[in-house]
Amino acid sequence: MQASTIELGDGSGGRFEVDEVYHKCHISSGGKIVMPVKNPRINVVFERPLYHAIQQLASRDGVSLSLKVRDLVKEALGIEEDRVLSAFAERRERTFTRTKALKHHEVW
Length: 108
Hints:
- Helix content is 45%, strand content 11%.
- Helix 1 (48-61) packs across helix 2 (65-95).
- A hairpin with a 7-residue loop joins strand 1 (4-7) and strand 2.
- The protein has helices spanning 48-61, 65-95, 104-107; strands at residues 4-7, 15-18, 26-27, 33-34.
- The strands form 2 sheets. The chain has a two-stranded antiparallel ribbon with strand order 1-2. A two-stranded antiparallel ribbon has the order 3-4.
- It is built from 3 helices and 4 strands, in the order E-E-E-E-H-H-H.
- The chain is elongated.
């Protein structure tokens, strides 16, 4: 078998040789390639300053970049959910009339 030379994609000019490459993926019944992983993956491209900011936060917290990005996304989704629920509550508050509201004993 002939060895292949692989160049690192980090701009360092580093190279290494491999004899064999095994791809661990599966073809679903629909013909789609799926990776055998527990959680789905997302490939994200960041501008350099944003990448460095995330890198610093991950380093500060002693976690990997992917874990830090996951935590930041979860936090952002929580903030977005709060914003949507707040807007919904404000709309309901504007249309609320005490005379049309049900009394406690009417509900229970």
